[in-house]
Design goal:
The chain has 162 residues and is mainly α. It is built from four helices and no strands. α1 runs antiparallel to α2 and α2 packs antiparallel against α3.
Length: 162
């Protein structure tokens, strides 16, 4: 095997070794996206239940349900933004891996581009986690102020008894 081809092979092997860390980061981001989508589904389901029962709620319960709907809308918006930022981070990591391989195969120096892509991916992931933390804090506050379906059943039973 000629020396140039051997060096080229070693360069590609080195890039494969360096690509392992970003692949693990992709796995972590996929897990975060999975958690975010599960939280989105729960918030959307809760919003549907509240919207379905909203006309049947009495005064105080109606105001409480409307307030909870507002919180759910904020949570849903935040989860969507967090998921979008996580996906952006994952896409940047994919482009980073492709760029690293492209640089090795073509023999082009792309280390600054790879560094920029990595920094951008980490910034997007950091913003995702900050937005996610905010969504969690809103969920914790709203858990104390929930217009639960069990309250609806009691109000309905009381109204029917009268």
């Amino acid at each position: 095997m000629p020396v140039a081809a051997s060096n080229h092979f070693l360069d590609i092997a080195h890039v494969i070794q360096l690509a392992i860390a970003p692949v693990f980061l992709l796995t972590a981001i996929a897990t975060i996206i999975n958690v975010l989508i599960a939280r989105l589904a729960r918030a959307v389901d809760r919003r549907r239940i509240l919207e379905e029962h909203l006309p049947e709620y009495m005064e105080d319960k109606h105001r409480q349900a409307v307030r909870e709907l507002g919180m759910l809308n904020r949570r849903i918006t935040m989860v969507i933004w967090a998921a979008a930022l996580a996906v952006l981070s994952a896409l940047l990591i994919c482009v980073l891996i492709g760029t690293a391989f492209l640089g090795a195969v073509m023999g082009v120096e792309l280390s600054r581009t790879v560094a920029f892509l990595f920094i951008a991916a980490v910034v997007a992931l950091t913003l995702c986690l900050i937005v996610f933390l905010r969504e969690i804090s809103i969920a914790a506050v709203s858990a104390r102020q929930t217009a639960g379906p069990q309250s609806f059943d009691r109000k309905k039973a009381t109204a029917e008894a009268k």
